[in-house]
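Suppose you are handed a protein chain with no further information: no name, no annotation, nothing but its sequence. What can you learn? This example shows the usual starting point.
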Amino acid sequence: MRKRMEERRNLSPADDTASFDTSESVQDRYLVRKIDLRLLPILTLLYLLSFLDRTNIGNAKILGLATVLKLSAPAYNTSLALYFVAYVIFEVPANVLKRFDPQVWLPTLTLVWGIVSLCQGLVKNQAGLLGVRFLLGATEAGLFPGVVYVFSVYYLRRERRARVAIFFGGAALAGAFGGILAFAIGKMNGIGGRQGWQWIFILEGLLTILVSLFAYFVVPTWSYKAKFLTEPERERLLARLDKDSDPAHKESFQWVYVKQAFTDHIVWCYALLFHGYAFVLYSLSLFLPTIIAELGFASWQAQLLTVPPNTLAALSIAMTVWLSVRYDRRAIFIIIAAAVAIVGYIVLLTATKPGAQYVGVHLAAAGVYTGNALVLSWPGENVAGQTKRAVAVAMQITFGDIGAIAGVLIYRPNFASHEYRKPHIIAIGYLLFSSVVAAYLWFWLSRENKRKAAAQQSKTLGASDSIEERQRLGDHHVLYRYVY
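A reasonable first move is to predict its three-dimensional structure. Written in structure tokens, the prediction is:
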């Protein structure tokens, strides 16, 4: 099958461009729907569980975790930071290992982190919690880049935005789902000699383990040997991918492509953009129950009150991504999302009544989650060359999660006065920084598209559109167009 595709490319190289007509036939739409039904439910569920297992410590905290384990004042924040330290350390190795068959790799990751998550409910002291949180970060590091890579071998560039957003929507759903679960599980306090916060980790860890076993039978393998597709469907899928970008042909690893990623300032901009958004994403998701409780609500009320803002965030992601796809724009919606979040934080800072402040929580959650959903899929659409794209995604997540480390350390006890006033102000600064980076990307990418179009029309660049030339130049090829 691959040989026949190579023959077709050799016979008609002029048709093999990044700007070909991608209008869909009825067969294409049926094929994409079939892929959606196989990939999106299970992969979104895995990410939901991943986000649930990394953030349920926020629900456990207000049920007495810190008191029982006798955590020192900064130890809780340190435990959160250690998760992201491990995530950053193991992100690049995970990006290499993701080349393993996803049908085995992704469920195995889920199984291992489910066991580690369960162990959080068995820790007896501060040292145990710190160690388990580090292991949780190490075991979860491979899921997000692995899934994004799987999307790249099944979907066209323009199709990935919505799929990554749906996948990331699992994070918002995890917040809503986690609040309800924490409220219900918290009532198990005392059963089996364990406290409610312990049961949160144990039961949610068991849920992850059970889903991981099911995932071995559902998560698909690589597109060129996917058994849920017929041979004609596989051929059509690979032909679509080959015309659209570069996932359909095998690219040998070369250090020059790694260098291309590290020396491309736009790749660093994607990393800086997520750095700003990761600060607010994880500080908000991990401290949301505490922030709501600080408004004057009881712990059980705070658990339930995390549900509405997270639900709104999921709806906001769906609506904004639909608009982004419809108008084929990215930066403007990222900036608008940041503006909505900033308004939310300002309301939290200035309002004097809990009800009004709770409205601010909704706005902050909607803006933060929506912006992240758009930010995280941007390099996958705009970076060409398999190795360069893999490194770019790793750089974005790695450098971005350094922002997450800063976020969980800033929301520490000695900054908790006046309902986290100082951390909220710093969060606004990070959102403004991300807006500036998004605006720069908007300007630079649109200018590059115009430059390439003019060069192509005047044939001043004279670049060949052969497979080898496109692979060598990647997204800098004259035929390649950026999404901005």
